[in-house]
Design a protein that fits this description.
This protein is α+β, with helices and mostly antiparallel strands. The protein is about 25% helix and about 25% strand. The strands form 5 sheets. It has a 6-stranded mixed sheet. Strands 4, 5, 14 and 15 form a 4-stranded antiparallel sheet that branches. It has a 3-stranded mixed sheet with strand order 1-13-16, with helices on one face. A hairpin with a 5-residue loop joins strand 6 and strand 7 (about 150-155).
């Protein structure tokens, strides 16, 4: 069998192994692919978030020569939130790597390392799924744990309320003309007003994550279909469009594909969640450093990977992966949502 002494060599150090695992190809979740969350590596386990209550106000006219109106400084508050810990490992026994390479083979290191990297990759995929789950929570104002408990309620932390859910009434038997477009305008105006100066005209846009039933009724709606009848996209009306996306009413609509169980990472089938995208400073993610002495007080990374050895019997090794994120939403009042009916 391959000698476990290989795990004392440089390729199995935390830095080298973390790099190897990061290089493995993988398919990220949709929210990860949007690059909504600006990375903020920090050197501590607590993120400091400054709340600035900036306001705009009209200035009353005054007679020439009179003293100008005295301005007021914006109110500033500091919120301290700890990052969370995501960690998982899997023990690989000596029997599992038996015959990976013949005894004494010069390529022994590569063979054993591949077993470990493959397992680390599987663990990493679970970490990525957890990150997508946290992103999906953050774009709705609440970051959730795997059991559904609330890790951070950003609306509560910032002292604001989430917008009231909008009824798109997609199952109306005789919908009024232009009703869906009016609802789109209601969402867009609300988002832009909530974001104020953060919204960048010509650059920022809105993405709607749709549950399956909401998507099916939206794309089958008479108003939406008639819009596309005389366009190059008319052919799309004759084919299936599950898990696709299209533009309508100034919004990018996406049939969000989560986990296949429809619940672990998913949008409620009757709902849609509106996400302001490409808005600087709206979404951040803080990364804390790992717990090893080799990385303490360094700038945090998105992922750490290490190998734990059975030093007593030399009978197993254990790949472990760690991540220490805090997904942040700075303007929960801009997070609109809708229901199908």
């Amino acid at each position: 069998m391959a000698s476990l002494d290989v795990f004392n060599q440089k390729p199995f150090s935390m830095i080298e192994l973390s790099t190897a695992v990061r290089k493995l190809p993988y398919s990220p979740g949709f929210l990860g692919s949007l690059n909504l969350f600006r990375p903020r590596p920090i050197r501590t386990t607590v993120a400091m978030i400054e709340k600035l209550d900036g306001t705009l106000s009209l200035i009353q006219t005054t007679p020439r020569g009179a003293p100008p109106e005295e301005g007021k400084r914006d109110k500033r508050n500091i919120i301290y939130k700890p990052t969370v810990r995501i960690a998982k490992g899997h023990t690989i026994t000596a029997n599992e790597i038996q015959n990976v390479r013949a005894f004494g083979s010069e390529s022994e290191l590569e063979g054993v390392m591949q077993v470990v990297v493959d397992e680390s990759s599987r663990l990493r995929q679970q970490v990525e799924l957890t990150h997508e789950h946290m992103r999906l929570g953050a774009v709705q104002g609440k970051v959730l744990d795997a059991d559904g408990s609330v890790l951070v309620d950003w609306a509560s932390e910032l002292g604001v309320s989430l917008p009231v859910e909008i009824d798109f009434d997609l199952d109306a038997a005789s919908p009024a003309s232009g009703v869906v477009r009016k609802k789109c305008n209601e969402v867009t105006r609300g988002v832009m007003r909530a974001l104020g100066g953060l919204w960048v005209p010509g650059s920022s846009y809105i993405v709607a994550l749709c549950g399956d039933a909401f998507w099916d009724d939206l794309t089958a709606h008479k108003e939406v279909r008639e819009t596309y009848l005389n366009t190059m996209q008319a052919a799309d009306l004759r084919s299936g469009n599950a898990f696709e996306q299209f533009q309508y009413g100034g919004i990018t609509w996406v049939n969000y594909r989560g986990t296949d169980d429809g619940s672990t990472v998913a949008v409620n089938t009757d709902k849609a969640k509106f996400i302001p995208a490409n808005v600087p400073g709206l979404f951040d993610v803080a990364w804390s450093p790992g717990e090893s002495l080799s990385v303490v007080n360094t700038r945090g990374e998105a992922l750490y990977s290490m190998i734990i050895r059975d030093r007593d019997r030399d009978a197993w090794v254990r790949p472990e992966v760690y991540s220490y994120p805090l997904y942040i939403c700075t303007q929960p009042k801009a997070l609109y949502s809708a229901k199908r009916t």
